[in-house]
Design brief:
The protein is about 50% helix and about 10% strand.
């Protein structure tokens, strides 16, 4: 049954990727788009920034991305929404991760070699079956899938999942929490802060209450009693 469920999810993601690709192309033809180039010049164009290029751009990392308040999903919005839904990951969280990771630059490359919108390391991209880490749809699908894995691994604790996305699972496990690295501490604050959650590194849980409403809280969900079932 598990194999069938996984196969069904993969098939759904493939369909969503194809649908998102069509919408992505439609969105890319609309514009106008506003961006600032490496020299600080403002550009307004109907071509999404750097989508026509294939030369990766060096990217300093989370601190630079977080300061780019103009970062916006643009033509990636539909893909983010559909792929996030397929993996049951909150789209707002995905948008926040992309904003902090790459400021929505599909050709961004970090000092450590992380690539694309969701800054996938080569080994992570390979493990996820990503052939082109610079392709927006492949990158988003891989990053969201990795987030889903981390959320499951840390029982829905958003802070730990986001910390592991930045510093790796080994670091989170070694410190039994968010590692005391300034970059990771700031990363967690920025990602969660962009979606309106606490900026103080602490456990954050995502669950649905009895009415089906999505809840974010630093208090873990109450175990369901027999009377609740």
């Amino acid at each position: 049954m598990l194999v069938r469920a996984m196969a069904a999810r993969i098939a759904l993601v493939v369909v969503l990727l194809l649908t998102a690709a069509l919408r992505f192309q439609e969105a890319a033809a609309e514009g106008p788009y506003r961006f600032v180039d490496a020299e600080g010049a403002l550009h307004i164009t109907n071509v999404p920034p750097r989508l026509h290029a294939r030369e990766p751009r060096s990217f300093a990392g989370a601190s630079v991305a977080a300061s780019n308040q103009a970062a916006a999903p643009g033509p990636y919005l539909a893909a983010i929404e559909q792929i996030s839904a397929a993996y049951d990951v909150d789209a707002a969280l995905v948008r926040s991760v992309i904003a902090v990771e790459s400021a929505f630059d599909p050709l961004a490359v970090s000092r450590k070699g992380a690539r694309g919108l969701m800054q996938l390391m080569p080994q992570t991209a390979s493990a996820l079956g990503i052939r082109d880490a610079y392709h927006p749809l492949e990158n988003i699908a891989g990053g969201v899938r990795h987030l889903r894995y981390l959320l499951d691994r840390y029982a829905g604790d958003l802070s730990l999942a986001v910390a592991a996305y930045n510093a790796g699972e080994k670091a989170v496990d070694a410190y039994h929490g968010i590692p005391p690295y300034p970059e990771t501490q700031q990363y967690v604050q920025r990602v969660l802060g962009r979606v309106g959650l606490s900026r103080t590194p602490q456990p954050m849980y995502r669950y649905e209450d009895s009415d089906g409403s999505r809840v974010y809280s630093n208090v873990p969900p109450r175990p369901r009693s027999t009377s609740d079932r």
